[in-house]
Design brief:
Elements: H1 16-34, E1 38-47, H2 54-57, E2 60-64, E3 67-76, H3 78-81, E4 89-93, E5 102-112, E6 119-125, E7 128-146, E8 150-152, E9 157-158, E10 162-163, E11 169-175, H4 176-179, E12 184-188, E13 193-195, E14 199-208, E15 226-231, E16 233-246, E17 258-260, E18 264-269, H5 271-274, E19 280-286, E20 296-299, E21 308-309, E22 316-320, E23 325-332, E24 335-338, E25 344-348, E26 353-360, E27 372-377, E28 386-396, E29 403-405, E30 408-416
Parallel strand pairs: 7-12, 8-13, 16-19, 24-27
Antiparallel strand pairs: 1-3, 2-7, 3-6, 4-5, 5-7, 7-11, 9-16, 10-15, 12-14, 14-15, 16-18, 17-22, 18-21, 20-22, 23-26, 25-30, 26-29, 27-28, 28-30
């Protein structure tokens, strides 16, 4: 006989693993819904500026304390506050009481970026920060150059250090109080050497106050922090001084006798420059300004770039030797054009011109008016038909050693094809 066994249907709750999983889920839900509030601290970077503030309208700027890190402590459900970061907050400050330069305590307050967020802001630490304000000023300073420890070798001369072109001045911007404290800007060569040839160095730019204390440049804006400096090493040389002339009559194109109160000068410069100098020429003497009564001319030395005079010569006098010359007034009625452009004809309108003739004493009384004429140069003249004024110079058809003292102009008529 078969045993009749009763089959009982099993429930899922008889499965221990299922029951364990369900229990764990219920426990988590229960923990979330009834868990106590907790607190967390969120780091918040704040940037304090005077933009769109009354302090900014006064011209004040933040010069120290602009970037700060603060901590915001909040309380709430863990599942809410656990994901908070700086983007969930707004930190505010007021600069309304700041009207002049100085250091101030700026109060900070924090609020929620989303007003419906379920948590509470407990504190902001620190609740106030120190911020320094000042007006911004820009000023230009000369850059002083030094090379105190550099020497020249024997038979050489140490030149003044030279800063690269474009760096002799510097424009500096920053807090008014710091800019106003700058007494000098200096670039000093940090080297101790004896040189026989010129040498270049790179030197840092440093700022000093009136007491000689170096100024910190952290809060300043400088276009450059270092410069290139050349320390030139010179050689010396003695060269003659020469007078030069223009508008000379044919007899004196190659020169006229003259004397100088100083005939030589000792100069210095780099070897490359000095080797190419054989003489020093003075400014030009125009024969139209030379007469028996006006034969002394005073000049200062005009030396080439990179050359200096070792001798102290404040002034040089040129005396032109025309003691055997005389002058007299004559009327000139002849006029001659030279270098007339093609397609142009020129006719003098002036019929007579009084001029001062300078000539050797031995011939001046023999010179006839018909032997004199005023020459005018038309090269470069591009005027249309009409009249114009041109410069004219006294010449002679017979004598090559005469000239006119003074400047003269005549009226001419121009016709162009």
């Amino acid at each position: 006989m078969k045993n009749n066994q009763t089959k009982i249907k099993k429930s899922v709750f008889d499965n221990n693993r299922f029951v364990l999983a369900i229990s764990l889920i219920f426990a988590i839900v229960l923990w979330i819904t009834v868990s106590p509030e907790r607190s967390v601290t969120v780091n918040y970077p704040i940037n304090i500026t005077t933009e769109n503030t009354s302090a900014g309208e006064l011209g004040l700027n933040v010069i120290e304390g602009q970037a700060q890190n603060i901590s915001i402590r909040v309380e709430g459900k863990w599942y809410v506050i656990g994901e908070l970061d700086a983007d969930d907050f707004i930190v505010s400050y007021s600069l309304s009481g700041i009207t002049k330069a100085g250091e101030y305590d700026v109060m900070l307050t924090a609020s929620k970026a989303s007003t419906g967020a379920d948590y509470n802001i407990v504190s902001v630490e620190p609740s106030k920060v120190k911020v320094k304000f000042d007006f911004i000023k820009t000023a230009v300073f000369a850059v002083e150059v030094k090379a105190d420890e550099i020497e020249a070798s024997e038979d050489h001369i140490l030149g003044a250090p030279v800063i690269d072109s474009g760096f002799s001045t510097i424009e500096i911007s920053g807090p008014l109080s710091i800019i106003d404290s700058i007494a000098r800007v200096e670039a000093s060569v940090d080297a101790n050497e004896t040189l026989s040839t010129s040498k270049s160095y790179t030197a840092p730019v440093k700022l000093y106050d009136a007491a000689g204390k170096e100024i910190d440049t952290t809060l300043l804006t400088l276009p450059f922090n270092e410069v290139d400096i050349t320390v030139p090493i010179h050689i010396s040389k003695e060269v003659p001084i020469k007078a030069t002339f223009k508008n000379a009559p044919a007899a004196y194109v190659d020169g006229i006798s003259y004397s100088l109160n100083v005939s030589k000068v000792k100069i210095k410069g780099t070897k490359e420059v000095i080797d190419g100098i054989t003489e020093v020429t003075l400014d030009v003497i125009d024969f139209s300004q030379l007469s028996p009564d006006n034969n002394k001319f005073k000049f200062t030395l005009n030396l080439p770039t990179g050359v200096e005079a070792i001798d102290d010569i404040p002034e040089i006098t040129v005396t032109v030797n025309i003691k055997n010359f005389e002058q007299k007034s004559v009327d000139v009625t002849k006029f001659t054009a030279v270098n007339t452009p093609s397609g142009m004809t020129v006719t003098p309108v002036t019929s007579k011109k009084a001029v001062t003739l300078v000539a050797p004493s031995s011939v001046i009384d023999s010179i006839k008016a018909g032997e004199l004429y005023l020459e005018y140069d038309m090269s470069g003249k591009t005027a249309a038909s009409g009249e114009m004024v041109v410069d004219a110079f006294l010449k002679s058809s017979k004598y090559n050693n005469i000239w006119g003292y003074g400047t003269y102009q005549i009226q001419v008529k121009v016709n162009t094809k």
